[in-house]
Amino acid sequence: MRSKLRLLIFLIHHMIHVPSVVPLYVILLTLSTGLLIPPCLSEIRETRILDDSRPMILFERFGFGHEGHVRVTVRNISWRSKHQNSKLDPSSMGFFLVREVSFPRILNESEYVDGFCMLESRYVKLILKFDGYTYNGSTIIDEPDEYSLVFGNCQPEFEVSMEVHTEMYNLGVVDGIKDYLPAGQTPLPKLYFLLFIVYTWFSVAWAYACFKHRLSSLDRIHLIMAALLVCKSLKMVCAAEDKMYVRRTGTPHGWDVPFYVFGFFKGIMLFTVIILIGTGWSIVKPYLQDREKKVLITVIPLQVLENIAAVVIGETGPATKDWFTWNQIFLLIDVICCAAVFFPIIWSIRGLREASKSDGKAARNLEKLLLFKQFYIVVVGYLYFTRIVVPAIGAVVSYLYEWVMTAAAEGASLGFYVFIFYNFQPVERNPYLRVEDEQEAAAGRALEEDDSFEL
Q1: Is 228 in contact with 269 (CB distance < 8 Å)?
Q2: Alpha helices of 164-251 — where are they, by DSSP H?
Q3: Strand partners, 149
Q4: CA distances, 435 to each of 359, 368, 371, 382 (Å)
Q5: Contact at 8 Å (CB) between 242 and 256?
Q6: Per-residue model confidence as pLDDT tens digits over 348-384
């Protein structure tokens, strides 16, 4: 965790030309967002830099295993001076690899060396230095670790424009075949395909339950939940194919497009289902109140913008100037949406408590309150785990176990889906749908004496 914070402090400090320490919230926002968003990029990448004078540009991070390889090719390079009479020295620019643990050492080195240039540091692995003739470079990684590919410009008075082609891969120990996935992501294709099978089975079971009760207890919310499962299943198979093709060829072969499309619909429908269940729409009541409609029409456009931000982040990479800004936008919108889903649940709990005092149906309301309380706790736990705990896991585990973060997030999502679909399935005796009018006196006393439903 500390090494990643040092890395971000160093990079942001050099990219935005601030002479003091970067505000801590910027670093934490960037770190959290970067860990939240699953990378779907190819490891054969084309990046265009236009009139950029940043002293350091982070292109990507890659976990190398046995015999890693890096190749960088630069085309259509040009310079433009921001000051008159500035003399260009192309050899002051180039590409290098650096480990996270080396950044504090480089910082210390820069404080004691006059005219310090990152390309000359003994803690970096130089790939390519511009000499006016050669703009291609490659290297072999003989010490497995997670490295950052960085472009260094020791003459920031010059703005550089260029097209950069990068390839990063590991060679198989036995067969020597190129593997373009980072060392910590190699299990992901199988993991995503396994999840596809699970959610497909889940979708079939839910469709059967809906068909079985289509004439008695099927509501519109159940159809929306079915669409959510289908989109989740399709997203998983697209993720599996995306990772499989990236691993073999370095590019997703178009599978990233349906991945983003189904991820877009899945994200919108997930928050919609949580909000609609929280309001009791279509199950308890056939309408939405004005304040509940306002929450819904606020969250849906925000989800659209959040998915746009996710696509921009995933398809551009940190070398783009606005990449960190899009990360912060993504995280901010996600926080707003997570906070918004709690309001309908809280309103429903308070409404049921007030109704229990006047409608004479204490037992029925007590059952509903218990279910809403469980739903509230599970939503809080799910959002806390996926937004806080999962990034923390990614920050402390070795780069060789990066897949664990994805497995933890998807495992929590599966558990959350099982809870929702089990408790709100279309069956006659679901306590959310029907509660027998008995033990009214005992339920009434329980509601009067127990204040655990107060939020």
Answers
A1: yes
A2: 188-212, 220-249
A3: 60, 97
A4: 14, 8, 12, 27
A5: yes
A6: 888 777 766 665 555 566 777 788 889 999 999 999 9
